[in-house]
Write a structure and sequence with these properties.
The termini are far apart. With 448 residues, this protein is an alpha+beta fold. Helix content is 23%, strand content 36%.
C-alpha cells in the first residue's frame, strides 16, 4: 500500500505519461483497500477474510474520443503498457461531444476540508472475533431466539488519490468499522429472522456489540406469530432503517444522467413543490466522521453541503461534468467514479431533517395503519414513480403498535408519497442515508 503522497505522485506521473503519449487530457485514480472480516456462528469461528488490493485507473481523451483502462499491477512496465493501450483505444472510440475533464476553474485548489474520516486504529483479528462473539451471544440470550445466522465484525482502510492533467492532485483516506448480528426466533414454519448492524468511520464511535446483538434478538422475537391485515387505503409509517430507501429513489430521480435521458419521474419538477412545506433534504459531504464524507468529488471539484429539497421545493439536479454539459448547466461537485469507466453522479451523507412530532404523537391518531420495518423486492418505476413493494412490520391500531404482520404489499406513487410525507423528530445519523420515522398518508395496502 502506497502512502498518500506516493499515491498522489503515482497518479500524477501516470497522467503525465498519458499526455506524453499523445492524449489531449487525462485523469488517473488510485484506490487501495485493506479489510478484515470475521464471522462467527453458534459460538464457533465460521470465516476469516483478509483482503489487500490496490488498483489504478486511467481515463484519457484524444479530442472528443476517450478510453478508460485500469490495472492492479503498478510496476513501471505495466503502467507504460496501460498508457499505450488507452491511447490506442481512444483513437478508435466514437466521439462524444459531452466528454471531458471537469472545468479547470472549478477544481479544488486550496487545502481539502478535513472530514476526520480516518482514526488510524488497527484492531487485531482476535479483537474483531471477540466483538462478533459478543454480538451473537447477546442476540442468542434473548428469550425466544432459537438459532443464529451468525454475527460479524470488520475493519477496513481505504486510500484514494486523484490527479488530472489540469493540475489537480489530491488524496484522502478513510477507516471503517462494522458489527452485525442476524438471528432466528421461533420453531418450524413459525420462524422469523431479523438483524441489527452499525457502521462507523472511527472505532470509538462503534456501538457496543452487546447492544447490537440484543437489538437483533429482540427484533426477531417481536416478529413471531404475524397476523393478517385487511386490504385498503391507510397511513403507512416507515421505520428509519427502511425509510431511507425513499431518499434513494429521490436521489436516482435527480441525477444528471436520469434527467438527460428523460427517465426521471421528477423531470418537470425543478423549482416546484415536491414535498410538503417545511421538509428539508440535505446532502452533507463535510460531516465529521460521516460514512460518505469526502473533501472533493470524483473529478476534483470541491464538495459542499447543499439542500436538495428546501421547504419542500426541489432546488436543482445532481451533476457530474458530462451530464452538466448535456443539460447546459454547471457541475455540482457530485461526481462519483470507480477505477474503470467515466464518472457518474451521486450524493454523499443524505438526510431528511427531523420534524417536530415524536413517533408516539406521529401515530397517535391512526385508527388502522402499518408500521413497516422491512421491504422486499424492487417494484419501483423510476420513470413514472409507481411504487409497489412487499413489506412486513406491525399493525398500528388505535394509535399504538399492535401485532406483527407479514406478506403484505404497500403501493402508491412516489410523487404522491413525497407530498404526503410527515417526518418525526427521531433523526439519528447512523447510515449513509438517514431519515427519521416517516408517515405517509393514503397508501394502498394489500393484505395477505
Amino acid at each position: 500500500m502506497l502512502s498518500l503522497s506516493e499515491a498522489q505522485d503515482r497518479t500524477a506521473d501516470l497522467v503525465a505519461a498519458a499526455r506524453k503519449a499523445g492524449a489531449d487530457a487525462a485523469d488517473a485514480l488510485y484506490l487501495c483497500n485493506n479489510s478484515t472480516q470475521i464471522s462467527v456462528r453458534l459460538g464457533a469461528l465460521e470465516d476469516v477474510e483478509r483482503s489487500e488490493g490496490e488498483e489504478i485507473g486511467l481515463r484519457l481523451f484524444v479530442g472528443q474520443r476517450s478510453a478508460s483502462v485500469s490495472s492492479s499491477d503498478l510496476s513501471a512496465d505495466a503502467l507504460a503498457a496501460l498508457v499505450e493501450r488507452a491511447v490506442a483505444m481512444a483513437r478508435e472510440a466514437p466521439e462524444d461531444p459531452y466528454a471531458g475533464l471537469a472545468p479547470e476553474d472549478r477544481l479544488l485548489r486550496g487545502a481539502p476540508v478535513d472530514v476526520d474520516g480516518d482514526d488510524g486504529a488497527d484492531p487485531s483479528p482476535a479483537t474483531l472475533r471477540e466483538r462478533a462473539e459478543e454480538a451473537e451471544d447477546a442476540a442468542r440470550a434473548v428469550a425466544g431466539v432459537t438459532n443464529s445466522e451468525g454475527a460479524g465484525a470488520s475493519a477496513s482502510r481505504t486510500l484514494i488519490a486523484l490527479a488530472t492533467s489540469t493540475g489537480f492532485a489530491r488524496g484522502y483516506s478513510n477507516s471503517g468499522y462494522g458489527c452485525s448480528a442476524s438471528v432466528i426466533a421461533g420453531e418450524g414454519g413459525a420462524m422469523q429472522r431479523d438483524y441489527a448492524y452499525h457502521s462507523t468511520r472511527h472505532l470509538a464511535d462503534l456501538e457496543a456489540a452487546s447492544a447490537i446483538g440484543g437489538r437483533a434478538g429482540q427484533r426477531a422475537v417481536k416478529r413471531l406469530n404475524p397476523g393478517r391485515l385487511a386490504s385498503g387505503a391507510m397511513p403507512v409509517v416507515f421505520d428509519p432503517r427502511v425509510g431511507s430507501s425513499l431518499l434513494g429513489h429521490l436521489a436516482g430521480a435527480i441525477t444528471g444522467s436520469a434527467v438527460a435521458r428523460r427517465t426521471s419521474f421528477l423531470l418537470d419538477k425543478l423549482g416546484e413543490l415536491v414535498f410538503a412545506r417545511g421538509v428539508v433534504v440535505r446532502d452533507d459531504p463535510h460531516r465529521l466522521r460521516g460514512l460518505r464524507s469526502k473533501p472533493f468529488d470524483g473529478e476534483g471539484l470541491p464538495t459542499a453541503p447543499r439542500d436538495i429539497i428546501a421547504d419542500g421545493i426541489l432546488t436543482g439536479w445532481v451533476l457530474d461534468s458530462a451530464s452538466a454539459r448535456q443539460l447546459g448547466l454547471e457541475p455540482t461537485g457530485h461526481a462519483t467514479r470507480g477505477i474503470g469507466g467515466p464518472p457518474g453522479a451521486g450524493l454523499t451523507n443524505l438526510y431528511l431533517e427531523a420534524g417536530k412530532q415524536s413517533v408516539e404523537d406521529l401515530i397517535a391518531d391512526i385508527k388502522l395503519g402499518v408500521y413497516v420495518t422491512e421491504l422486499i423486492g424492487q417494484g419501483v418505476n423510476g420513470v413514472t414513480g409507481d411504487y409497489s413493494r412487499g413489506a412486513s412490520g406491525y399493525v398500528i391500531r388505535d394509535g399504538q403498535l399492535a401485532e406483527p404482520v407479514a406478506e403484505i404489499t404497500v403501493a402508491g406513487n412516489l410523487k404522491d408519497m413525497f407530498r404526503e410525507l410527515t417526518p418525526a423528530s427521531d433523526l439519528r445519523f447512523r447510515r449513509g442515508v438517514d431519515v427519521p420515522t416517516l408517515r405517509i398518508e393514503g397508501m394502498t395496502v394489500a393484505g395477505a
